[in-house]
Write a structure and sequence with these properties.
Blueprint lengths: L3 E13 L4 E13 L3 E5 L6 H8 L7 E6 L2 E2 L5 H11 E4 L11 H11 L4 H14 L15 H13 L5 E5 L7 H18 L2 E5 L3 H4 L4 E6 L2 E7 L8 H8 L1
Parallel strand pairs: 3-8, 3-9, 6-7, 7-8
Antiparallel strand pairs: 1-2, 1-4, 4-5, 9-10
This protein binds adenosine-5'-diphosphate and magnesium ion (MG).
């Protein structure tokens, strides 16, 4: 598939913890075309997070091939991989927490500063990203002064501040009430539609999955089945505006 931005072939990940060997991924093959929103579902422990970590280059697979934008990422050295990630990928992971001592805008600009963007450029970009998620007025607030939904929107602004080609999200709405989760999903759909960003979203929520183009079902470290979402729920612009408020 020439237009696949993510190509995963026969991915195997084994964790050897000494006492036990865990087969987290048992041969996963997956193509994601540019601009697709794909949901990954499956019971706890089936390997969803491991798949995201390996496919995005955060973790190394035991075996198999990962090509991102045509490049076999195993051929990249650590520095190249890290800088590639900082430039082309965004992460909405639960363990990528916001830093409590930094304001919203400082949290958002951090990845830019890390990847070498001058501070004078990083600040306006971070403010624009916050505006994009409806938090322009909250730029100076620290995470503790924000609601759960607002915090997650800061996380999304941080993930999107460098205009990534691919956004990896691991249960991005897991801690949120259903209304807020819906708003967050509306925002991601909006970005996908406007900027053709590719989203890979791990979720337990069937309502979230139904707003993606495709759902991959995993079990025991493998892809069990996949389905194309028919009658996908899309958010009209005016709902998006309200959702940002
Ligand atoms: N760092 C690790 N060391 C050992 N085992 C791990 C590690 N990370 C995940 N696992 C195991 O790999 C399997 C898949 O985990 P994970 O990818 O986190 O599943 P999911 O995200 O679907 O809940 C589980 O059995 C988990 O316990
Ligand atoms: Mg997980």
């Amino acid at each position: 598939m020439p237009d696949a931005i993510i190509e995963v072939r026969d991915l195997v990940k084994t964790y050897d913890t000494g006492a036990v060997t865990v087969h987290a991924l048992n041969g996963v093959t997956l193509d994601v075309p540019r601009g697709e929103m794909v949901a990954i579902m499956g019971p706890s422990g089936c390997g969803k997070t491991t798949l995201l970590n390996c496919a995005s280059g955060i973790d190394e697979p035991t075996n198999g091939l990962i090509r991102i934008e045509g490049t076999d990422i195993s051929t990249l050295d650590d520095n190249t991989k890290t800088s590639y990630r900082a430039r082309r990928m965004g992460f909405i992971f639960q363990f990528y927490n916001l830093l409590p001592v930094l304001s919203a805008v400082e949290n958002v600009e951090l990845p830019l500063l890390v990847s070498g963007t001058p501070a004078s450029e990083a600040r306006p970009k971070a403010l624009a990203a916050l505006e994009r998620v409806g938090l322009a007025d909250w730029a100076g607030h620290r995470p503790a002064q924000l609601s759960g939904g607002q915090r997650q929107r800061v996380t999304i602004a941080r993930a999107l501040v460098n205009d990534p080609a691919i956004v990896w999200a691991d249960e991005p709405t897991g801690d949120l009430d259903s209304t807020t989760a819906d708003q967050i999903m509306t925002l991601m759909q909006d970005l996908n539609r406007e900027q053709q960003q590719t989203f890979v979203i791990v979720t337990h929520d069937p309502g979230i999955a139904q707003r993606c183009h495709r759902i991959i079902h995993m079990r025991d470290g493998q892809i069990e089945s996949e389905e194309r979402v028919t009658g996908r729920i899309e958010a009209p612009e005016q709902v998006t505006e309200a959702a940002r408020g």
